[in-house]
Amino acid sequence: MPSIVPHVVRWTVWSKKLGMQQARESRKIGLSRALSKLGYCSRAQATGLIRSGRVRLNGTVRKNPETPVRSQRDRIEVDGNPIVAKAKIYLMLNKPRGVVTTASDDKGRETVYSCLDEALPWVGPVGRLDKASEGLLLLTNDSEWAARISDPNTHLDKTYHVQVGVLADEKLADVLMQGVRVASGELMRAKKARVLRAGERNAWMEIVLDEGKNRQIRRMFEHLKIDVLRLIRVAVGELQLGRIEKGKYRILAAGEKRLLDARI
After folding, report:
1. What would the pLDDT profile of 154-206 be if each residue is shown by its tens digit?
2. From start to end of the chain, where are the E strands?
3. Tens digits of residue pLDDT in 40-62
4. What's the whole-model pTM score?
5. Residue 130 annotated among the catalytic residues of the structure
6. Catalytic residue among 74, 105, 130, 157
7. Which residues contact 164 (CB under 8 A, 6 or more apart)?
8. Based on C-alpha coordinates, what's the Rg of the chain?
9. What does each C-alpha distance from 237 to 78, 192, 263 come to in angstroms?
């Protein structure tokens, strides 16, 4: 008599897959987030489109960015055009100094989008580098991946080369690793710090962070009354900036993305 066990196993696996598919189809998220997840624009941009009455959900204009959407079932249109999921794209840019990490700037400053080709699909920055900082900046239209990369709880290492206006030594490196209590009262520390090279009046240091706090390096040195002359992000996890020219970008290789995925 044939065993029924294989049939039971196949039924169980099929049943679980069906349940997961049904859960995905019935899951509801806000309309602005749905547009972002589809890779159409950022959530902030989506909010503006929705509030201006340019977005329809199943044929009806919705002006509430938090309108529930079943992303696998519902139909979303912007200006009458149906929105379908864009292919995921992952870029690394060598951000130049002097440009801001935002889609648009109310002060009219140049943004990182001036470095990208117009033919690219919409991508958003993964985290930020301030205007005076430069180096490796990731951009993607995969909002969930970007959130995992940016989440401080992942403790993903970010490595910086920092030129400071003092003759740095290992004592300074130890202070940075032990922690500095900045003006807000918050304790900030570097995971690693070391002197790379020193000149007659300044020095270059390598600093590794895994906390993801806003302007952390600048705030630490500011508290120590040390000028930051240059700040360059040279690595995120094991992904190295390498020889990309300033203001240029390239698509991540599949192996590079896997290295990051393994850490998040």
Report:
1. 889 999 999 999 999 999 999 999 999 988 889 999 999 999 999 889 999 99
2. 28-30, 55-57, 60-61, 68-70, 76-78, 81-82, 90-95, 124-125, 134-140, 158-164, 180-181, 187-188, 192-198, 203-209, 228-236, 239-240, 249-251
3. 888 888 999 999 999 999 999 99
4. 0.78
5. yes
6. 130
7. 202, 203, 204, 205, 221, 226, 227, 228, 229
8. 23
9. 37, 13, 8
